[in-house]
Amino acid sequence: MQQNTTHILKRKTDGTQTVNASETLVAITQLLAALGANEIWSFKLKLLLDGKAVADADVAVGFSAAGATLTYGDASAAAMDAIEDGQVNFPLVDDLPTICIIEGIISTGANPGNLTTSFAQGTSDASDLELLNGSSLELRRIDDTT
Predict the structure, then answer these.
(1) What region, left, alpha or beta, does residue 92 occupy, with left being phi > 0 and alpha being psi -120 to 50 degrees?
(2) Is there a contact between 46 and 101 (Cβ–Cβ < 8 Å)?
(3) Least confident among 70-74, 135-139, 140-144
(4) How far is Cα 74 from Cα 92, in angstroms, rounded to an integer?
(5) What is the bridge-based pairing of β-strands 82-84 and 128-131?
(6) What is the pLDDT of residues 80-109, one digit of tens each?
(7) CA–CA–CA angle 142, 99, 78 (5° rounding)
C-alpha cells in the first residue's frame, strides 16, 4: 500500500535559538504546524539542546484552539509518562548537546489551530541554553487512510 505523503508534515529549525537566565517558556516558531478541525495526528519532536552549564530544560507542546485533546511524553525515558497540557523536564549533559525526544497524539476537535512547541531553562542559570539547528517536528495524520 502506498503511503499518502500529503498527510505527513515536517518542520526543521535552520538556526540557533537562545534562552538565558529564564524559566519562562519561549516559542519555537520554526516548529509550528497548522492543523485542521477534527483531525488526529501523531507527532515526534526532536530537540537538540546545548546547555553548557545549564542543568536542565523544560519543553512544552500546546494547541492554540479550544476543544483539542493533547497527550505527550518523554520518548527518550525508559518509561514514558504521558503529560497532558504540561511540560517535560530533561536533564542536560554539561558541555555536550542533548537530544530530547517527545512523542504524542493531538486530536484537534471542532476548531483548527496551531500545534506549538516551546522551551526554557528548567532552573534559571546565567549560562545560555541553545536550541540547535536541525531540531525537528514530524507529524503523521492517523485518522485518514486516503
Answers:
(1) beta
(2) yes
(3) 70-74
(4) 14
(5) unpaired
(6) 455 544 688 888 887 789 999 999 999 999
(7) 70
Q: Give the C-alpha separation, 82 to 90, whole Å.
A: 14
133 DSSP 8-state letter: T
Rounded to whole angstroms, the Cα distance separating 9 from 38 reads 17
Q: Cell digits for 40?
A: 488526529
- 3-state class (DSSP) for residue 1: coil
Domains by residue range for the chain, with CATH? 5-141 (2.60.120.40)
Q: pLDDT by residue (tens digit) across 102-135?
A: 999 999 999 999 999 999 998 888 889 999 999 9
DSSP assignment of 61-119 equals EEESSTT-EEEEEETTSSSPPEEESSEEEEE--TTS-EEEEEEEEEE-TTS-EEEEEEE
